[in-house]
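Hi D.,

Good news: the full-assembly prediction came through. Inputs first.
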Amino acid sequence: MVDVIVIGTIGIDDIKTPFGDMKNLLGGSAVYASHAASFFAKAGMVSIAGEDLPVEHKELLEKKGICLKGVEFKGKNFRWAGSYEFDMNEAKTLETGLNSLLDFDPKLPDEYRNAKYVLLGNIDPTLQLKVIEQLREPELILLDTMNFWIDTKKDDLMKVIKKVDVLLLNDGEARQLFDTVSLVKCGQQALHLGPKYVIIKKGEHGALLFSDGKHFNAPGYPLEVLKDPTGCGDSFAGGFIGYIAKTKDISEPNLRKAIIYGSTIASFNAEDFSLEKQKQISIDDIENRFKEFREFREF
Amino acid sequence: MVDVIVIGTIGIDDIKTPFGDMKNLLGGSAVYASHAASFFAKAGMVSIAGEDLPVEHKELLEKKGICLKGVEFKGKNFRWAGSYEFDMNEAKTLETGLNSLLDFDPKLPDEYRNAKYVLLGNIDPTLQLKVIEQLREPELILLDTMNFWIDTKKDDLMKVIKKVDVLLLNDGEARQLFDTVSLVKCGQQALHLGPKYVIIKKGEHGALLFSDGKHFNAPGYPLEVLKDPTGCGDSFAGGFIGYIAKTKDISEPNLRKAIIYGSTIASFNAEDFSLEKQKQISIDDIENRFKEFREFREF
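Then the structure:
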């Protein structure tokens, strides 16, 4: 039995930042998100991987207790190569090899269909819709997306947005989708599309939570070392949904806490490539950083 | 007897934003800052104005209880014309008429020289230095500056920075001065220059306070109406120093509160042109918004 299911990609990444030029890293939205969720709850992945996925990558996920029953292994693995400039704000995609991802048709193992907490990680919205259709009684569905889908599959994306409880966007995506610079207006417009909650991620500046008549402003963590931002958005989403699954509380005050736990894991994630840092930290490290978040926003 | 003195400009501004094209507005760094400070303490201005400054502008300041003994009236007034694009992030200067500002040689009235709380508002650092030399026993000196002085008078600016207690910069200026994108590194480097506290303003994203081993993250206010950002930085600085002067407490926890009060007045200031909004609000409005700041950052 899994507490939370995560749909997204399993990738093999080549990543270049000012701090290194790394090859064949474990990556992908489902990987980062389910690893982050696993600090709090039993996560099951829904994804497709290649038969060439290095065995140590698979072992890393299994060691973390992540259920891979929902992962199909077929052909060559999805690959992504990207680089970051000095300001680390946005990845530049150098190469994408979709490979087996082209054949991905998500089928949920029966036990996954009872999952209460669901993260639709960054992947084609058509696939996200297929997952929603297979769910029996979800309590909370969190949708993550990205500008690529806003550009290429806006209609399908809008269908997904209508069906979810929490919409997660970064600031650039929100401004693009709602054609306004004001994030407050973006948040309000997003609520009109259906979701009960809207979270706008602002990178180093933290995140905003909008819901009916309420507003929460989550601070960013003052990171001194930022080696690779890849997967931070996914880790945020995974940490968030994992904490919700652990506490089984979808009230607004608990969503605030979940945002800080998500931010905590995302901040650790940025400190090294791939899952290097995430795999070293304990729940105590997370709790300590959560306390720091409280202290540096207190007045 | 004044509690806080503010050096800066008195301007007549022409300002164009997507919400209007306004002429002959009261503006200038000393005006916005001393008006904001006056919600909390008796402020005295150190500045120069033209003999052509409209009498209603002067009356507005006097009505607020601002002491103008430190203001010289001479020749034509300093004028500035600026415009903001859709994103309201940065003013584009269309025209500057320095006029009487060219003759400004700040001489503090004797009672100003005993002031404990001093705001060196945005003006030529050579003039800021002259003010410091005339002070008898300042408790806290706050320095505000801008990219123009970093570009043109960096040596003098560095001399001022060494002599102040709190350095205030916006994020762009901090990155320019310290040649790094990391605001955490900017904050740490700025502390090495002499000030005990460094505040980095991030516009809509709030502000950061750095001091020895401590970090404070102040949220931005979720403004729905933003008509004109002119003077928000000055209003922040004025509200900050005014609150410090009122409470006579320069501890780090109290500086955190001062930052929120400064943010509160700055957020009101952005809601209309010139001092139009500031002159309508009461201390109750400020206290209510301060409470909102507490509520929307709570988790």
